[in-house]
């Protein structure tokens, strides 16, 4: 997306987001953050957590009502970096947001989730930060903001990764292989109909 003029950071997503750590980090910087999140999800009351902060003007919260992927993708496409600050859960929290950033060629700052099948740091597509590490988040935010050429390179690497490893052809082949494997399984061993 060569003609876009990126501006600031964005966080989207609806479940198991660590808004406390993220907001502590952004409040300690002067960087612009747009946070799109539902007021609540499951047992987590994001609005209550957010309202406990005295947010600077550089941090803007937009409460979403339901899933609005196309509208959010348009907003994400105008940003310099996608931030995915997640709680420590044993699954791929944030994966949808991560793959969207890849497709748009935007670097990420992401909680270091061991359940992702790619290594964000090794692939040079963004920066990972340990769970609950406010100082690590502050450092990552400054690194992206202070080194736009490096961030742009990370975004280009992310787009290449999306085209090479996370595309429809590979996805379709993996589904076909899984279905073939299931079809060969004895009906007695299946845990589904």
- Helix-strand string: EHEEEHEHEHEEHHH
Judging by the overall fold, what is the CATH architecture? 3-Layer(aba) Sandwich
**Percentage of residues assigned to helices:** 40-55%
Task: Give the CA-CA distance, first to last residue.
Answer: 45 Å
Using the coordinates shown, work out and report the CATH topology. Answer: Rossmann fold
What profile does the largest beta sheet have?
Answer: 6 strands, parallel
Domain count: the total is 1
Pfam family, one: Glycos_transf_1
InterPro entries: Glyco_trans_1
Domain Glycosyl transferase family: 16-160
Organism: Phocaeicola vulgatus
Structural overview:
The strands form 2 sheets. A 6-stranded parallel β-sheet has the order 5-2-1-6-7-8, sandwiched between helices. The protein has a two-stranded antiparallel sheet with strand order 3-4. The protein is built from 7 helices and 8 strands; from the N terminus they run βαβββαβαβαββααα. Strand 6 (81-84), helix 4 and strand 7 form a beta-alpha-beta unit. The mean pLDDT is 90. With 193 residues, the protein is α/β, with parallel strands linked by helices. GO terms for molecular function: glycosyltransferase activity. It comes from Phocaeicola vulgatus. InterPro entries: Glyco_trans_1.
């Amino acid at each position: 997306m060569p003609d876009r003029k990126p501006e600031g950071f964005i966080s989207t997503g609806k479940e198991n987001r660590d808004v406390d750590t993220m907001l502590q980090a952004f409040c300690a910087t002067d960087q612009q953050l747009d946070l799109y999140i539902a007021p609540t999800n499951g047992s987590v009351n994001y609005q209550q957590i957010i309202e406990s902060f005295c947010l600077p003007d550089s941090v803007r919260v937009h409460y979403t009502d339901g899933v609005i992927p196309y509208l959010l993708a348009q907003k994400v496409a105008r940003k310099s970096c996608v931030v995915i600050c997640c709680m420590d859960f044993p699954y791929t929290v944030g994966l949808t947001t991560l793959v969207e950033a890849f497709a748009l060629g935007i670097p990420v700052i992401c909680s270091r989730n061991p359940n992702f099948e790619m290594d964000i740091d090794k692939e040079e597509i963004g920066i990972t930060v340990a769970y609950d590490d406010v100082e690590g988040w502050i450092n990552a935010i400054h690194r992206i903001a202070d080194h736009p050429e490096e961030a742009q390179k990370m975004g280009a690497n992310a787009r290449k990764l999306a085209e090479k490893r996370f595309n429809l052809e590979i996805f379709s082949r993996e589904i076909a292989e899984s279905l073939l494997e299931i079809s060969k399984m004895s009906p007695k061993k299946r845990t589904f109909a």
